[in-house]
Every structure is written in structure tokens, then in C-alpha cells.
Design goal:
Helix content: 25-40%
Distance between the termini: 30 Å
Largest sheet: 7 strands, parallel
Radius of gyration: 19 Å
Structural class: alpha/beta
CATH class of the largest domain: Alpha Beta
Oligomer: single chain
CATH architecture of the largest domain: 3-Layer(aba) Sandwich
Strand content: 15-25%
CATH topology of the largest domain: Rossmann fold
Strand order of the largest sheet: 3-2-1-4-5-6-11
CATH superfamily of the largest domain: NAD(P)-binding Rossmann-like Domain
Order of helices and strands: EHEHEHEHEHEHEHEEEHEH
Length: 249
């Protein structure tokens, strides 16, 4: 499966590292804003031995239409910023390239643009693309549907430097119809990221916990999405769409 990555920050580098290690995927290229690493290979930069090209292109000097033709891919995986989709989305959609975006936030207009693109190709958006977090959200929604009267509390812990409320915690709260003001927050040295949903029942408690160990989890989530989107028809998808079939008993 041929892949191109948009964005090469900490998350993009972690995803590239995971893809390079998987023989079912082939990293064709990476596009980043800066021209600092232009024309170097991702494998060389990361110190990974592979024969995959994985060339680094700069957004300053790259035409996506030409890149998609000269270095075709099956999927674009986007870990960049909100405006990136506006630069490559139409070209990708016209060539039938499937889009997986893990950009944490899109405005209303950009979401409408994603949905327009999804009329031409597969578009998948997940603000947090880790499989574990999305399973937690899915399971929590099911449990709240079963027991809407249960007490529900959300807590999140992250590294000391993290500013503001966790975006993932906000998404969990939205899915469970809980006010963001009720989320318990901690900032602790040594913690990467931890989310917990607690259901309080009479005489028992259920806790759903997800703990991040490294950003490579984003790569596993992106590959899981790609595998499950391979045979999907044109349309707009989220993680719940690809998890739901696994819950069919």
C-alpha cells in the first residue's frame, strides 16, 4: 500500500517510523512546510534501513498535482495543519487518492470542504487517530446507552508542559454529552497522556482507561484506518464507521 505523509513534525515523524517498519506499506514521500530537509530521505533522517524512497519535499516548492502524478500513492495521511487540506485535497480527490487526516481541529467551512471531497474519494477524519482512544469512546458510548442513569466522570492526565484542556478529553465529553467543565485535569511530570472514563453504578464501578506510551500509536491507528478503508466506497468516514463491524456478534 503506497502512502504519502503531509506534515513531518513530531507526530508525522513517529508515523513515518511505524510505516517504514511495516512491509505491507510503502512510504513514497513526505511533504513538510520547511525546506530544511528537502530532497533528503525519511529513512536516512530517522536512521531506518529500507529501500523505500520516502523523499522529503517542501511545501514551498511542491505542486501537489505534479507530485501525485510523478509519485502516485493510494493514501495521503495528514498530520499537518487545518489549511493543508485546502492545498492538496482537490488534486488528491480528482486522482482518487484516499485521504486520512488526523488534524485535531477543523473549522465548519473546512469540514464542509472535506465532505465535498468525499463525493469523489474516501475521506477519513479522526482528531485522535489512536485505536485505543477510539475504542474507549466507542465502548463508553455503548455503556452509556445501556445505562443512561449511571454517574459518568472523565479525567485526563498529561505532561506538565501541556497547555489547556486535552482535545481528546473534549471529544470524549462531546460523545457522552458531558460538560467540559466537569472534566478532571492533572499535569504531572513523566506522564505522556492518560484518559479515563468512570461509570458509577450502585454497588459497582466500571473504568475505561487509555494511556499513551509514545506517538508511534498514531502510526498504528493510521495504518488500521488505511487497511479498513481499502475497499470502502467513496464517502466521509470516522473511526466509529470502521470499528462498528467488529462489534457485530
Amino acid at each position: 500500500m503506497r502512502v504519502g505523509i503531509i506534515g513531518f513534525g513530531r507526530a508525522g515523524r513517529a508515523v513515518a517510523n511505524v510505516i517504514l517498519a511495516n512491509k505491507d506499506f510503502r512510504l513514497e514521500w513526505v511533504v513538510r512546510r520547511s525546506s530544511l530537509l528537502e530532497n533528503r530521505s525519511v529513512s536516512e533522517f530517522l536512521g531506518v534501513e529500507t529501500d523505500e524512497p520516502g523523499l522529503i519535499y517542501s511545501l514551498e516548492h511542491t505542486s501537489f498535482a505534479e507530485l501525485f502524478k510523478s509519485n502516485p500513492v493510494d493514501f495521503v495521511i495528514d498530520f499537518s495543519a487545518e489549511d493543508a487540506i485546502l492545498k492538496y485535497g482537490e488534486d488528491a480527490a480528482q486522482q482518487g487518492i484516499k485521504i486520512i487526516t488526523a488534524v485535531s481541529h477543523y473549522g465548519a467551512d473546512t469540514i464542509l470542504f472535506l465532505k465535498e471531497l468525499s463525493k469523489k474519494t474516501v475521506v477519513f477524519w479522526s482528531p485522535n487517530i489512536t485505536l485505543g482512544v477510539n475504542y474507549l469512546i466507542f465502548a463508553a458510548k455503548f455503556l452509556k446507552k445501556i445505562a443512561p442513569w449511571a454517574d459518568v466522570k472523565i479525567s485526563e492526565e498529561h505532561f506538565r508542559e501541556k497547555q489547556g484542556l486535552s482535545g481528546t478529553a473534549k471529544i470524549i465529553a462531546q460523545n457522552l454529552d458531558i460538560s467540559e467543565n466537569e472534566i478532571n485535569t492533572s499535569r504531572i511530570g513523566g506522564v505522556v497522556g492518560r484518559h479515563e472514563v468512570t461509570f458509577g453504578f450502585p454497588y459497582q464501578t466500571v473504568r475505561l482507561v487509555h494511556e499513551s506510551i509514545s506517538r508511534e500509536a498514531f502510526g498504528n491507528g493510521a495504518m488500521f484506518a488505511a487497511i479498513n478503508l481499502t475497499n470502502k466506497k467513496v464517502g466521509f468516514y470516522n473511526f466509529e464507521d470502521i470499528l462498528l463491524p467488529y462489534f457485530a456478534m
